[in-house]
Amino acid sequence: MGPNGPLENTWTVGSVASLKLASVQRAHNDDVVALAVSSDGTRAASVDATGRLDVTDLQTGVSQSSGGSSADRAFMQWAATLGASAICFTHDRQYVLAGGRDGVTRLLHVERGATSREWENSAARAALQRTSYFLRDEIGGPGHGITQLSMGTRDDSFLACDAGGVLGIFDLRTPGRAQMQMDGECSRVEAAFTPEGSVLGVLRGTDANDVYRRMYGTGTVNELLVYDIRRADLAQAGPVSTVAIDAHDASNLRFSASGVLMLLLHDYADPLAQPSELVVYDALDFAVLSRIPISSNHGMNAHNQHTGAAPTRFTCAEFSPECRFAAAGSSNGMLQMFEIEDALQSQTQPRLILSAKKHPLPIRALKFSPWYPVLVTACQNIGIWTPDPSHKPTPQSSNGIFAQVEPEYKSNNLYAGLDGFA
Known about the structure:
Shape: globular
Number of strands: 29
Number of helices: 8
CATH architecture: 7 Propeller
Number of domains: 1
CATH class: Mainly Beta
Radius of gyration: 21 Å
Strand order of the largest sheet: 22-23-24-25-29
CATH topology: Methylamine Dehydrogenase, Chain H
Structural class: mainly beta
């Protein structure tokens, strides 16, 4: 059941093919680094590279930065001083968790601003005290900013990852230090709870030239650690499974709502020879079920090789709520949606259903509404996509694309000519 009755979010091939950019909010002046949608699907929160936080009403398409009420103005004036680097909604749509560049996560009311509840990734700061000043400067200073926040699926626990490779699990009801904290010998860490809430997946890695590689003498490493979070001695007991990831850089760890699929983005050392991939795994045995290379979807990499531009790569991806589709954003501003479910059942390559280039800048994040057929994308601005009810799907073409939307904007205006936006 949805928040207002029966589930209203049933994505079909027709609704995906007819997606249109219904609203754009020019909410930020720099790249969005984090995006979240509330559990009831009515709000989106975003944070940009300058630390600016904004909240958008998905029902009206109006953000607080453009709102005229005194509460909106007061919230935005306060949020501008926060220095946020990560964001997520709690199970209550009125509250968000905002991770700061100081390694502290704060609970905020979306209208009133700060509350008194804070949590600190203290292990990161302790680790920094053990390193030389040279290494601390190279890592990024004396504080490790929060890079990811995610609520637990069954209770009020949440996880926070920081730029120092530290993962902490906290509880909304007990402000202060972490219930459990892992300080791995790595420079990058992402984590995700499985839908039933009993398993924690931790993706960690070291970059080829980063400080941790020199400190610990390791090469480029990407691995997935699987923990049973029902164990009280989680950090001491270690993972129940460790999976090596065959990529130069793996990111974007996502589990499907059904709990049977896992999604990662793979990047490789030579992107021209081995392009960026969207990879679907079996979430039970972690076998690779499907690989979708970006070069097979459009000819941008050949063009980039000729012009000397950086190869196009996937930048973000999400499963749709019912797990039938996967949406992916890319560094050239392209939004693509693939039909995953039927392809896995028939053991064929996932079919590209939608390819729409409405963002002139890289799509940094995207999220589905849990209850409504709404998709939110972000570059420096927030785009709200909804199916066109008047659309009639065209016959399938030979390359499997149902809908192809070409860009319609001018270089001096980010969103000139977009679906009713001058």
